[in-house]
Amino acid sequence: MKEFDHEQLKVFLAEHAQGDLLSWANELKLMNLFGLSCNSADELIMTSGFLPSRYQRNRHMISTEQQYQLLKSQVAVVGCGGLGGYVIEELARLGVGRLMVIDSDVFEEHNLNRQLLATIDNLGTSKVDAAVKRVKQINPAVQVDPRQIAVGLGNGVELLAGMDVVVDAIDNINGRLDLEQICHQIEVPLVYGAIAGWFGQVGCIKPGQRILQKLYANWTAGKGIESSFGNPSFTPAVAASLQSAEVCKVLLGHGGLLEERILSVDLLHMQFDDIPVQ
Question: 278 pLDDT band (50/70/90 cuts)?
């Protein structure tokens, strides 16, 4: 970060803020004046007791101090498809400061019915590159680390170490079980999500709980029912929103989590069941 006069910063904020809110136009002026990245500008604004205006609708549930806590947080989203695209969107708008987005795939036509990042123009292009572009458009304070690779037991510990939360947005059971094992080893919470047709599941797995091992104890092989049920546009949006809420609560240490239980979502009959997994 460029050296600058803190007194000059105070004067700038006092002159350009409306109350304690600083508009995007004035934040751009601040970035240009001091040679700052958007992430660094957000940090200086919040640590000075002000708030970027794009977060003003958060403030009745998230304080400025908590917004700063989100800015300093790191979350890995494993999978940038149906679930992952919505999770990335929501965490970026929430203001999580660093997102590692991981997916080895490119967009295909069958992704267009449900994946937020999938567009006609993106067909054949990398899902992680689309995530980087999208986040830059909606919240340039969020630093995105794209990894066009598959996560497994061979590389997961090194890749995900240091994250505050890992989000499961993949589409196969074997990958989820590996991800749970990795998160257990690095002692990082895993926010689980799975969808199939009208149905979804969400949970928050703390290190040592091994919920997925219990949930899939009778599984033998294959992707699971999502491969035969398919998914419409709305199921991933609902499940991903529930996952994003869990991530927010983990990062802020606030609220009740879906620990040692799975929230089962049935959108066909609009029924939500809280299922203990001991």
Answer: confident
On whether the CB atoms of residues 16 and 22 are closer than 8 A, the answer is yes
In a domain, 1, yes or no: no
Last residue of a domain, one of 39, 62, 85: 62
- How many domains would you assign to the chain? 2
As given in the structure block, the two tokens for residue 241 are: 């929103």
pLDDT digits (tens, 9 = 90+) for 74-87: 999 999 999 999 99
Q: What is the largest CA-CA distance in the chain?
A: 64
- 4 or 53, greater pLDDT: 53
**Contact at 8 Å (CB) between 200 and 239?**
yes
pTM of structure: 0.95
**Rounded Cα gap, residues 87 and 76, in angstroms:** 10
How close are the terminal C-alpha atoms of the chain, in Å?
48
How many separate helices (H) and strands (E) can be counted in the chain? 11, 10
The range of the structural domain enclosing residue 102 comes to 73-276
